[in-house]
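Hi R.,

As promised, here are both runs. First protein below:
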Amino acid sequence: MDSTPHVPRPRALTRVALVGAGYIAEFHLEILASTPGVALLAVCDSDLSRAQAAARHYKIPHAVASLEELPALGVELVHLTVPPSLHVPLARQALGLGLGVFLEKPLALAASDARELVAQAGELNLPLAVNHNNVFHPSFVRLTERLKAGEIGKLQHVRVCLSVPLRQLDAGDYTHWMFRAPGHIVFEQATHPLSQIEHLVGSVQEVETTLLGTRELHPGQTFHERWLIAGRGERGTVELYMAFGQPFTRSTIEVLGSDGSLEADLAADTLSVERKTQALDFWNTFLAGTGRARSLARDSRRGLWNWSLFTLGLGPRRDAFFVGMRDSIRAFHAALHAKTSPPGSGEEATRVADWCDAVASTVSMEPADTPQVPDPGPAREGEVVLTGATGFIGRQVVQRLLKEGQPVTAITRRLHSLPPEILEPALDGRLRLFEATLDDEPGLLAALDGARVCLHLATGGGDDWETVQEAMVQRSRRLAELCADAKVQRFIYVSSVAALYAGPDAGVSEIDDSYPTDPRPEARPIYARGKIAAEQTLREFGRRSAMEMVIARPGVVMGAGTPLQHSGLGLWVRDNHCVGWGQGEHPLPLVWVQDVADGLARAAMHEGSDLSGRAFNLCARTSLGARAVVEAMAQATGRDLHFHPRSLFLSQTMEVGKWIVKRLGGRRAPFPAYRDLKSRALAPPFRSETAREVLGWMPAEDTPSLLEHLVDVYAEEPEDA
């Protein structure tokens, strides 16, 4: 008899690459790094620098810019985390290269395309599946388990409510894919509840869609913000209410059965059940209410316990979204190794696409036409070139310059979904428009050729210092170098008062234009640190260049187009609860966005070289503190807004307490910088003497005018009958 001990065969590794290094990719990368049987070999993104940043952060060996490079690296399967419009072409390409595909939802924007992809994968014998992570949401999993156990009898009806905020709507950023056509929101957001609906009632039989609310984002760009869908599936009927851009989040799914009901609150990760008992009606009602209360209390305690364990480093991360993502991704790879049909299979995802098609059948899936912008032609005399022209401040600067008859050129990353302030003057020839990014040197040089002034409003960002340093500091420096090469006379960098130290112990009675940047940038968050570093490197370049270098620092900029929850007022722990950076009584350096635009336009048009090498603030002299602004907002909007004063010392004590808990849990975290917290208070008053005395700048400063421009714009206009 053979006495050799049995040694299990090592599990084969699936060699994986992630394609598309955007926001959702971070979850895939974190989960894949700890998923058994997976070797993460590469990150692929058309923006190679973004792929390199992700690969560096997650210690992945390769970063590439095209799918064609992946097979040579040994990759056999890709996770596609790209915008939905790229799902079909990139999935086809990946399958054609012999790569299996796991996509973020949806599989396709039409069920016919979904079926073609499934057929292609079948012919090539390659895996194809979709990450329907909401099917793995913990409370939904518990709901389906109890439904299968027969607790509420036979399923009859499913009722879903999805009412959520959309950050892009609040910020007025309508360039996201989901806004490009009226039906896109279905495939971007509704796929989540529809995947759950398909899981419960099967394939779609009939659907009726009613639009309850519509708004025009830009001329010709329609967005349907409220929907009511009634439908029938194989195993029951369905009712789905969707509302987007809502201040209060509600995400629930209720299943009505022949003998009871189950309701999952996906936002709170709770589940309640109501069943019939043998008791009389009055006692049955009591038992039903107390039973729901016990279920909700139990789930709430579990959520608090899981959060506490994770925070203390005694347990894994278990928030509902992360768990749903983790379990969906791991279930796919487990099925792959077991050679069984994975969840979110092509067939299942096609049925979800059928539901999406049916819901969106009454609205257009065609993006609004991108108008043909005239060729920009050569620069005109005195041309002012703007980066960040489509942003909150940039749009107003363009309008202000054009009003003065100033020739203006705008550099934009994309030509679709342009705001009317940019599109209209571009179409009639008043505004030259160039499509380029800040790392597109040929495109930038073409836009800068013959220009007199460059006004640099675009700003980069990131989650780590290396990314911010590249996006905010190095690209700004390189743009200045290109301007010098193009013989641009003046370079204006739009920084922020966040680059200054403005705590109560600043040691000055007021902050004037000569006040230096914070000498301790390491004690500031990466945004402020990036602005400080950008100012310093641009000043250093300006001293060696014949080009005039000017730095502008707007204060707390408010007005139509910025979210109501401005961080300059305090820490918004909820969208209606603001914790102050202090007591909220001292005047803030508030300024109306149109006044900022006026100051920047004046700097761009200014004759003479007396601005060279100088920095200037753009802050109004106000008597309004954070508390007064939030209270005025509550009155103007009718919302339940609250300002909570809190001493800086107490806030710091609480931050240190959080830090201690994280460290006890073994999590890396920088010690909270009291200096940064104090600087957020913006305690000393700000002077803007250069803008006033040299540029003739006169911002709105009396309280009624400021409240009209900064606060009253958030009041809802009465709806037409």
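And here is the second one, sequence first, then its structure tokens:
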Amino acid sequence: MINDLKNLTLDEKITLLTGKDAWNIHDIPKLDKFNMADGPCGLRKVEFWADGTNLHHRSIAYASPSVLANSWDKELVKSAASAMADDCIGESVDMLLAPGINIKRDPRCGRNFEYFSEDPLLAGTLAKEYIDGLQEKGVGSSLKHYCANNSEFNRQSCSSEMDKRTLMEIYTRNFGYACKAKPTTVMCAYNKVNGVWCSENKEINDILYNRLGFDGAIISDWEAVHNKVNTVKAGLALQMPYRNGMFEEVKSAYEKGELTEAEIDACAGKTVDLINKIQEMKSLRKVTTTTLERYDICEKGALEGAVLLKNNGVLPMKKGSHVGVAGTWRPDLYCGGGSAHVWCLNECKPIDLALKEVDPTSTVKSAMNKIVSYNGETSMIYPWGHPDETANYVGENPDYMVLSVATGRHVETEGKDRKDIKVEEPLEAYIRYVGDHYKGKVIVLLYAGSAVDVSSWIDRVDALILVGFAGERENVAMAKLLFGDASPCGKLAETFPVKLEDISCLNRYNDYMTEDYYTDGIYVGYRHYDKNNIKPMYEFGFGLSYANFTYSDLSVKDNGKSITVSYKIKNTSDIDAKEISQIYMSAPAKVIDRPVKDLIGYSKDLIKAGEEVTVTLDICKCRMTYFDVKTDDFAFENGEYNIMIGASSRDIKLEQKINL
């Protein structure tokens, strides 16, 4: 039916401003209803029983957004979201609370595994594909967390303090790119921005509606509302979850003249529009993938998003080999913690079993989680094995030694941040031991949701693959990469610093922090490392391959409102592989300080052995603008631009200057 605000009484409209419970809107007989469930790593549907216990529905756990971002693959991101939509349809879920696109300003942020990138363009354009994947299947989305929620520490009491240029160029621009998909809702963040709670912040809401192109309903994060009357005045449509006393608070404010019916109508009307939109979208709902096909998409996400960070020639492994396996493994390493944790449909296979599945001809021996005796004392389990016992399980002379290194969902989770970016010290010591003992053979698989300091052990190992939190099929995908069934093709969507002290916002924490001053301004991520001439361990956009590529024939054409960039990439190896190429620009910077380089485009292309492809991209000049605080708008600076084509942000292959 067509739901109409005009048919509602004032009391019904006020009731509509908050949810019925944690997952549903209120039951109003004149209106249709809808429900929602957590994302973004898959469907996390929770039901509450009368006794207060929870029932977690099991669902496929897909590669986390941080892994999907490392794929730089728009089609893959869309197909993963489309598969999640099929899961939602099967469980009668109307809206998935995803995707999250907060900028990765600080690698310590506990929810970085849920987010895409440190770069607004990459984060926003991939989020657009995610939203399209859900909504084209009739499932609603909730773009979050708006905005400047870049850490978990004190998130419900801290204010993100920044100037207007920083807000517009970095922390809302990502939402602007994503809003081109017309997300069903936008979810406000817990924190304040410049002293005002996001749930009550009319200034940032006006930016969302008047500048970023959003026309839907803003909903609150769960328990993010502090003053209900102020949220109504700021335009927040739907408070989640239900809170006792909210109705009386709004009704009293109306009766005192503190709230007008027009202000109530503006918010309730957005929720009615949302109800209508979801009802309209239901006509699109049709499950188009089988469970097995969704597993394939899950595995492809892990495969395409894995990043080969180091390879001294030990990879790919030869089949029919003797492979030792050690390190830490738990069956929950496929996903981070908190509201994004998915209770997977099938338990994630440990890497030793996955290696045997992919190549039954290899001998695989594991020292993971073995019971050992230490100095004749009580037997105990060492999560990553014990140096004195490792060889007893894997042998003294395996052909390869695969070492699993992990943080885990108890470390990377909602509600808290990491204290540092190292793995625990005993594990670091064990990595160094294995590296020295099995010299020339050690391959590390790193399961983590954000950057890790690898400086104390990277020189002791021979290969390093960033797995991330890559879903329940992650280790089958890793086994295929290790044995060379596919070539690694992921590249970093965030910078890996040499040490924590190199990041742009090191000293932002204190025990009583109520303000987080964004003194790094627009210089977040690779922009910070470039500006301050700091060498990262692995730069933004970096990733190795089993193949080799050469770049040539750059052409840049001015089309007025856009530029056309064209170049060639040749695969000079005998391996079919994909290459992610990145387009950066440096601006004239005559009017205002600008970054050394800005990402303005990217492409991922399959290039067969010995073949050459031509990459052509039409890039809107709006991506090349800066925010002018004097005119309160984005501005394009005329002058000489340098267009750069890179295999990473620091591996620039081609350059061409052009006057624009």
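A quick note on the second one: The mean pLDDT is 94. Let me know what you think.

Best,
J.
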